[in-house]
Each structure stands twice: as structure tokens, then as C-alpha cells.
From TrEMBL:
Keyword Oxidoreductase annotated: yes
Keywords: Oxidoreductase
One Pfam entry name: Pyr_redox_3
SUPFAM superfamilies for the chain: FAD/NAD(P)-binding domain
Protein name: Flavoprotein involved in K+ transport
Superkingdom of origin organism: Bacteria
Annotated organism of origin: Azospirillum rugosum
InterPro entries registered for this protein in UniProt: Auxin_biosynth/cation_transpt (IPR050982), CHP04046_FMN-dependent (IPR024000), FAD/NAD-bd_sf (IPR036188)
Amino acid sequence: MNAPSHTTHVPVVIVGGGQAGLSVSHHLKKLGIDHLVLEKNRVGHSWRNDRWDTFCLVTPNWQCRLPDYPYQGTDPKGFMLKDEIVAYLEGFARMVDPPIREGVSVTRVGKGPRGGFEVETSEGRLTADHVVVATGGYDVPIVPPYAHALTKDVAQIHSVDYRNPDQLPPGEVLVVGSGQSGVQIMEDLYLAGRQVHLCVGPAPRSPRQYRGKDATEWLMEMGYYELTIDRHPQGEKAKEKTNHYMSGRAGGHEIDLRRFALQGVKLYGSIAGMDGATIRFADDLAKNLDDADEVYVSIRRDIDKYIAAQGIDAPEEPPFVPVWTPRDTPTEIDAKAAGIGAIVWAIGFRPNYAWIDLPAFDGRGAPKFTRGVSPVEGLYFIGLPWLNTWGSGRFLGVADDAQFLAGVMSERLHARKSAAA
């Protein structure tokens, strides 16, 4: 799947050969539009190289709906493991057969001297009428500056580098962050018999099975995944919200951090600072647990209302009752005295758009777009959470976003040809 290296101008350049970029390529091929996909590594690299050994999807396999390539296995309600995800994406790439150059980095995209765009790459320079940014938002691992002030006796890695418990030195482990990665790495370490400490942030949580179905099935029926950002009650602020945590491990289950506390995991509030062997935490553990549970309960309430409104015969479930409440949680510990030998940072990533030399971003450096269409004519974004709907950043919704952008490009290319004629 390699395009000829002598191409100097193409109508469309897609930067990124993951599921989003390949989905755009598929729809452009169906429309007969010449294009080129540039991928700095190889198809499936992030899934293959940037996930831990036991990683699996938190959404069921039936939600894997890349364009014209839905999940074809025998376990639609299961959760694909890392190798299965890679195989699914590689199978999609074989079907699409995109004009792609793997191992090619894009170092700059700017305005061309005669209109359009100039695309500088590790293999030379291209020009294009349209550029699609399909690189995602997980480029730069976040580690706070004060991490460098911690004693060197404690090993530190980011979640992107975590593979398995045996990789870490002996001793107890502090996981910082309670988003999807943080809680799943915490569970991975706990199941391996490691003593785990967890900094609990403001991430919300979700039910897994509720009233006879996986919660995602109810939400799909209720139209949640089709809710567009302009109709969301929180509007643009929804883009800043962390995904709800739960797990697909061992057939899928919800994660209640209070239960893990009962089983020996030591919980603290948000990380606040480090100095020498001292690690400081905010006094917000109770609030963060309560807020996560409120979101959990609100999802259950919405499902209850839907079941009642539709007259659905579904089994009843008892109301949620917290099984543990924090008492006298320390806001400071000594890592050496606590026996902590390693820290896993799981507080997310920052996107890197420094290579885009165009006025396409807001004051905080976030891309500006409406359903992926940038105010900079000819520039597009795809594969980001809430690009248009809740499902936009997932295997579930990227197909619709790709089809829409391909249609926009088709209309603009045809209008340009008509004007030239």
C-alpha cells in the first residue's frame, strides 16, 4: 500500500493513516477523487505500540463500524483485545487499499504560493488543494513539571509506555489519574498482586450492565451517540469532558473505585505536587468520588426514564448505594516510607499541531471547525472527540464524519472545476 514517490501535486492530502484517515480515503475513492495518505509510522501503529498488553476496548465490538467494514467476528457483545483491534484495522486497510505512504512524516502544512496548500514531508514537498488532519489528539504525553522534583529512587513512566506489571520495579505503585487508562492500569496492577495507590481525579464513570443490557446498548437506542455538539446541553464545553470510565476486561464490568478501596487499593485526591520523597494531594477525594457516582446514577436514571416511556419490560435493579466513604484521607505521603517504587502517569495527552502553519486555532491552541470543516478553506479535521457527535472519536462514528467531509471536498472540487471551465 505505497503510493508512487514522484507525486508533486494531489487534490487531497490526508495526514494520518489510522481509522479516521483511512475512512476518509475510502469515501474519496468511492467518489473517484485522487488523494494521498501520509502516515509517519505504519497502519495500526498506535494500537499496536502505544497500549499495554491486556488493553481492550471499553465499547462492545458491535460498535466497530468503519465504513463498509463492520465487525465480522462471532462475539459482537464482547470487547476486542489489542491484537484483535490491530487485525480489524489492518483488515479495513486491505479493503480500502488506500494510496498511502507509510514512514513519511509531515513537518509543515502552510498556504501555497498560488493558493491551496504546501505540504512539507520527510520525503520532500507536495502541494494540495485540500488537507485533512487525521492525526488525533494524543501526541504529547502529559507529565507535570514538578514530577522532576521527585526523588530519583522512584521510577516514573507515562501510560503510553506502560506494558505490564513486571515492567515496573519492585514495590508499591502510584497511578496518577482515574480516566479510562488510569483505572484500567490500576486494575491490571491490582490483579497482578501489586499494592496500588491511585490519585482520583474528576473523571466520570458509567454503568456497564444495567437492567438486562450493556449500558451502551441502551444509550444507542436512546440516540445518545447521534447527539450532535450543537444540541448538547453543555455545548462546546462537552469537548473538554473526559470519557466515562468502565472496563471491557474479562467480558466487561463497571469500575467502582470505592470497591477497590475496600479491597486494599489506597485512594487519594488529585495530584498537587512533589518534592523530594514527598507527594502531595488535593483534598478532593470525596468530591471526585461523589461526582463520578452522580454521573453514573444519572445515566441509570436516563435509562429508567427511557424504559418507562417506551413501556419496555426490563428487570428492575436496586438503587445505587456507596459501599465505602473516605475518612481522614492524607493529603501528603512520603514515597519511601510508603514503599512506592514506581509512578504511572495517566493524566492524558496534548495534541501537537505545531506543524500546521495556518490560522486554524483558537487562543488555547485548539482547532476551530464546524463538523470538521475549518474556517481555513480546504482544511479539515477528523477523528477527534465531539467532532460532530459523541461517537465521532470512536470506531462507531468516524464513518459518518468521513463521508460528510468527503462530500464537502467533492462539492468544492467540482465547483472549482466548473469555475475554471
